[in-house]
From TrEMBL:
Domain of life: Bacteria
SUPFAM superfamilies, per the entry: P-loop containing nucleoside triphosphate hydrolases (SSF52540)
Annotated protein name in UniProt: DNA repair protein RecN
Keywords: ATP-binding, Coiled coil, DNA damage, DNA repair, Nucleotide-binding
DNA-binding in keyword set: no
Cited Pfam families: SMC_N
Span of domain RecF/RecN/SMC N-terminal: 2-505
Coiled coil residues, start to end: 267-346
Organism: Luteimonas endophytica
Family: Belongs to the RecN family.
NCBIfam families for this protein: PRK10869.1, recN
Physiological role: May be involved in recombinational repair of damaged DNA.
The UniProt record lists the keyword ATP-binding: yes
Amino acid sequence: MLTHLSIRDFAVASASELEFGPGLTTISGETGAGKSLLVDALGFLSGLRADSGMVRHGAARAELSAEFDLCDAPAAAAWLREQEFDDGGACQLRRTLRADGGSRAWINGRPATLSQLGALAGHLVEIHGQHEHQALLSRGSQLALLDAFGRHGPQLAEVAQAAAGWSALLRERDALAHGGDVGERSAWLAHQLRELEDEPLDAEAIAELEQGHRRQAHAAGLIASCDAALEALGEEQSLSRQLQRLRGDLARGREHEPRLGEVDGMLEAAAIQLDEALLLLQRIRDDLELDPARLEELERRLGRLHDLARKHRVAPEALAAHRDALAAELDALERASERLSALDGETDAAAARWRQAAARLGAARRQAAAELGRLTTGLIAELGMGGGRFEIALEPQPEPRPDPQGAERAEFLVSANAGQPPRPLRKVASGGELSRISLAIEVAALGLDAVPTMVFDEVDSGIGGAVAGIVGQKLRALGRSRQVLCVTHLPQVAAHGHAHYLVSKSAEAGVTESEVRRLQGRQRQEELARMLGGIEISREARAAAKRLLADVD
């Protein structure tokens, strides 16, 4: 709900601050005073293209600001969260227009694009008027209003869910189909995999191979070293024998120096280590042999590993991971071929589910369209357009795809006079007729669309008398479920407002300026009397104004 509107140097208004509440707020004023100023301000705040001519003469820029309470606008609150503009339960739209034609916009104090401003305003305000920002001219808005009127939420959710499932299957199938020739890729992968599987590629196997190659390549030197060491350890004067003799010499002195026992223990351990070293050395020597054929085989295998690494452009130690990746891709391709075959059936089933859900939604829409058309036609007649007719055409979408909105689109058709064929609402020429038809549609739909604030500009153009009173009644009735702002020149309409603003203009020092103020008590009665009787307000006009207010209360 709109709670505050601030206008600075906009058109002929220098500064205005307006507070709004729930229900119907009417705005009146003399011809040329700028009654539609508030509508234009909300239009610019809704993202309309900037017009430097709207900057007050002599000012550098115009500044507009509107504040909304989001308690009745969950869609707007959700949009703010998604776009990271949220700031508690309030929302402020702000826009400046420079005299040179530039403009800037902010949402909750953060810079925003005009498209973002328009997207958010679409969840907050509907403007029904004689200009291009008429809300119900959008076919998307028309379909949304029809679905809101028919309370098609469950059917829409079912269609959207079916469409999402169908779309996911189509995307999966397209991705598999665009992957190229699965058979050719599978054959190539299988060949590459066989090449890699013929060799032991695990890290342990490669390390063992490299170690065996080094041992065989240096076998002659290793054998010579082992033989020399074995010969030295086995000589008469070997280290082992020398240790034994040394231990015997020290044993004779242990009774005089106990610490020699500790030395003897160390020598004994050294002797044991020497004996174990001798045994291990003998085993190593027994394992060593000069085998040119074995060396050649090891070199061939190592060369093969390096060739594979170069071919696949990886390090030798990464060949095993590469082999596993190829195996996984081959498995996926083989499964993809099977999946592609299965997808045809699944896609057909998903399409059938969507068509069934869309058919149920379409049937509900046709029923709701007939009822809304009947109610709106009756209201059009009440609003002074006798013989007029309102219809809703449901046009099937060509070549149905998984559309979350269903299989058809709505077009609001209107015949303003008897005997005339219905034409699209967006092509209705008369601005006043367009406003009244919009009012009739909204009243018939009981304000069921999600936008909390509705603005009607000159909805009573071209009417008077009893019809004007009916228009006021309908606007007030709509105000029970939505916040309604109405620019009017008829006292019968203005009297039905829960609040009443007056727009007046004055000239000072050759400069025209508009002022907007809220009317209370006798001020309001005087304005209604002026609207009834003109510039010279008679006693009869005041009495009639008083009766108008009394009849509404």
